[in-house]
Each structure stands twice: as structure tokens, then as C-alpha cells.
Amino acid sequence: MRHLLSVADLDAAEATALLDTSDRLREALLGREVRKLPTLRGRTVITMFYENSTRTRVSFEIAGKWMSADTVNVSASGSSVSKGESLRDTALTLSSMGADCVVVRHPASGSAHRLAHWVDTAGSTGGPRIGTDRAVTGTPTAIVNAGDGTHEHPTQALLDAATLRDRLGGIAGRRIGIVGDVLHSRVARSNVLLLATLGAEVVLVAPPTLLPTGVESWPCRVSHELDAELPALDAIMMLRVQSERMHGGFFPSAREYAVRFGLSEDRARLLPDHAVVLHPGPMIRGMEIAPAVADAPNAAVLAQVRNGVHVRMAVLYHLLAGAPE
């Protein structure tokens, strides 16, 4: 695996291998007073975030540090980006400094793919990089997509799949509902693709105004009636309403959205007893999900966060430690 740009690049065996590695790394850390593995000692991981983030940025940093990598955080406001430097020049600068992996979040869809193309091209034509033992071969920097616009968020989908495996015992044959602002959600797109690859049946539930053009070609079913879908779901994933990406009225009011598509306590009672409740965060409590539902025993929101560290450790391991493909 050279880069992780999209879950569409993973087949079922590759995705399962990442999830299995995540499980093994979690087990390796159990009982350790100092949570450190020497796996990536000498490697340098840079997180480059052009959008705000808590869970993704911090979990990648923790993942790198727990595997003994040197981790560096770069924010747009604190870098030469604020002086007008292009994304390409910033990425190539970091690669030339010896970055073995750049984890990037950017508001433009496709940005991670462009970065991968640039560093691959530079690696094949620009000579060896400095500051790393891989400089002898000139191996390009690995790129991890930590969210590109409304396109994809592959590590979020992987951590959601890891959480579902833990809670349900498996994913194949399960019915998973994804509810809310699908139009602006890179999480929804990545989850639909990955869960379908792993054998789940996925149902998208959203108002027509919050569904993207071409959704009928996705490997899922679409519904507009949440109550009708709940009794048959093994898990439900509530999406964040991304008001910062909305220009215009996509629904009449927050109250009406909550009435039609929020997971209230009454709605949660329609779910089977074994059903799992997920949310990628941050949650808008009272609109997307009732506080009591978010904190209930069948809610796996904090488990998603914990699994996020181990899954991102697995991704870095497969990219940088020479794991068999």
C-alpha cells in the first residue's frame, strides 16, 4: 500500500487486513504502563490540516507517538500557506525535509489524490529526499487522506468498521443505516463504499435536499422514512449536519430536521436490542441525536474514538513498516 486516498482502493482482504492489524496493535498495548511500540522508530509523520479537527488530527498524532515515530503538526494558519504558498509547494517542501508520511485534510475534494501524484512524480524525477534512510532510493512520501472536501474520509470508515466488528461480531450480512446530511458528508461516502465491500447492506436515510446527485449509483439503498427503517437495522450512524458547507436552505429549521431525522429517545426504542448507535462527531445534541441516546449503553461514540487511534496506527504500520500487502 503506497498511499491511503480512498476506501475504493481497498478490496475486502486489504480492508480486513488493516482491521486485523488494528486489533493486534490494540492487544499489544494492553497492560503496558508506557504505551510505546518501537515499530516506526526513525520515521517522521507530519499532519497537515487545512480544516479544524480534534479527533482525526489528535488520534493520528497519538498513533504515531505510540509507535515511536516523530510526529509534527502543521496548520495552515501557522505555516507559509498564510503567505500564499501553494498546496503543492508545501507538500513537496515537507517531503524534501524527510517526511515519510503526510496526513492531510483539505477543503478541496481530490486534494489528497493531487498530493500523491505530486510526491510520486517528484520521487521519480527529483532525486532522493534528505533527512531519511530512504533517501538512498528516493522513495516518495506516503499520503494519507484525512478528509478531502465532501469526497472521502477513509480512516473514519475503517474505525467505524472496527467498532461495528467489535460490537456486532462481524459486518457481512448486517444492515447499517446512515442518516442525515449525506450531501456534504465525506464520512457517508467512505462508509457506504467500505461497508458494502465488507458485505453489509447499507441504507441511506435523508431528506431529498441532502442527498448528492448520482447517489443512485452508490452500492446502497435510499429511503426518506427513518421510522420505517429502524426496526430492521443492526446499526445506525447519525451524521453531523454540516452547516458550514451549506449555502441556502436545505431544510426549514433545526427543529423540523430533529422531528423528521433526529434520533430521539422514542425512535431509539424502535431499534432492535442489539443495535449499535454511531456518530462520527462532533455531535449536535438535541438536533441530530438526543443526549440520552448518545450516552446510552448501545451508543459506541467513544468506542469509535478509541478505535480511531488503533486503526490509524494500523494504517501507518502498513504504509511505513513494510507490512506484506
Automatic annotation (TrEMBL):
Enzyme Commission no: 2.1.3.2
Organism, scientific name: Pseudonocardia tropica
Keywords: Pyrimidine biosynthesis, Transferase
Reaction(s) this enzyme catalyzes, per UniProt: carbamoyl phosphate + L-aspartate = N-carbamoyl-L-aspartate + phosphate + H(+)
Protein role: Catalyzes the condensation of carbamoyl phosphate and aspartate to form carbamoyl aspartate and inorganic phosphate, the committed step in the de novo pyrimidine nucleotide biosynthesis pathway.
Pfam families associated with the record: OTCace (PF00185), OTCace_N (PF02729)
First-tier enzyme category under EC: transferase
Family: Belongs to the aspartate/ornithine carbamoyltransferase superfamily. ATCase family.
Domain Aspartate/ornithine carbamoyltransferase carbamoyl-P binding: 2-165
Classification lineage: Bacteria, Bacillati, Actinomycetota, Actinomycetes, Pseudonocardiales
Domain Aspartate/ornithine carbamoyltransferase Asp/Orn-binding residue range list: 173-319
Gene: pyrB
Stated name of the protein: Aspartate carbamoyltransferase
Gene Ontology MF term list: aspartate carbamoyltransferase activity
